[in-house]
Every structure is written in structure tokens, then in C-alpha cells.
Amino acid sequence: VNSGARIGLAKEVMSKFRVAWNQNDVSRGPAYLYLSPNDYKELKDSVTVDRVEVNGKTQYRIRDIIGKKNGLGVENLSGSGLIAGETSKAYDD
């Protein structure tokens, strides 16, 4: 079921994150998203991360994206939930 909701993503993070692939194989899908050390320095107030070492290089694995702007898409999910509830009630009537 597609509720039609969108989830926003902080634009400052969207242009910087990188993808670590499962077993370095794109066909196996992403293992996690990460930032380079320089990008993390710039975005440290917009994300929470785990510092990891991969092949001798530091990566900052993204755990949470907070963003600078408040309310990144949550209102869309709330609205979709309300619409779904009302639609369900209408079917029962």
C-alpha cells in the first residue's frame, strides 16, 4: 500500500553522503550511508554518526539525519495517517 507520503531529507546531507555497498557489490545493496571526514566536520550538527575504519580510512557511518531545518517530512506522514483513518471509517459506514 502506498500512502503517498514523502519523507524529506536534509539538503545539506543529501549532497554529501556516500554509499558503502554490501561486500563491495552494488547488486547486494547498500550496507550503510557515510560521510567523509571533511564532510562530517561540515555537517556534524546535522547528523549523528559512528566512526568506523575501513581499509585504513575513516568513515562516519550515518545513524541519524537531524538537519538544520525542522520538520523534514514528518507532517506528510501525519497527514497521510489522518487521511487513511478517515478513509477506513468511510468504508465502515
List keywords for this structure.
about 90 residues; alpha+beta; 4-stranded antiparallel β-sheet
Structure commentary:
Helices cover 32% and strands 29% of the residues. By secondary structure, the chain is of the alpha+beta class. Strands 1-2-4-3 form a four-stranded antiparallel beta sheet. It starts with 10 loop residues before the first helix and ends with a helix.
**Can you count the beta strands?**
4
Radius of gyration (CA) equals 18 Å
Share in helix: 25-40%
- Kindly report how far apart the N and C termini lie: 22 Å
Quick check: average pLDDT?
79
Query: Mind summarizing the main beta sheet?
Result: 4 strands, antiparallel
- Count up the helices: 3
- Assembly type: single chain
Physical arrangement of strands within the biggest beta sheet: 1-2-4-3
Poorly predicted runs: none
Shape: elongated
Give the strand content: 25-35%
Compressed to H and E, one letter per element, the order equals HEEHEEH
